[in-house]
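Subject: Protein record for review, amino acid sequence with C-alpha cells
Why sent: The fold of this protein is of interest and is recorded here as C-alpha cells.
Enclosed: The protein record, placed directly beneath this head.
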Amino acid sequence: MFITSYSNFNMTTDIRPKQLQMIDDQALGFIANSIGIGLFMLVIAYHYVMADPRYEGS
C-alpha cells in the first residue's frame, strides 16, 4: 500500500472574498476631482477639434 502525505494541502481554505473597506472622504474627494478634471479636459479637446476651420464645410 502506497501512502502519501498531503501536509501542505489545507482543506479549510476560506474562499470568501475579503471584507471591503469604506472609502474615506479624502480619497472620495480626490477621485471626484480627478474625474471632473478629466471630463473638463475632454470637453475642451472636443471643442478644440470641432472648431478647427480646416474641417468645416464650404
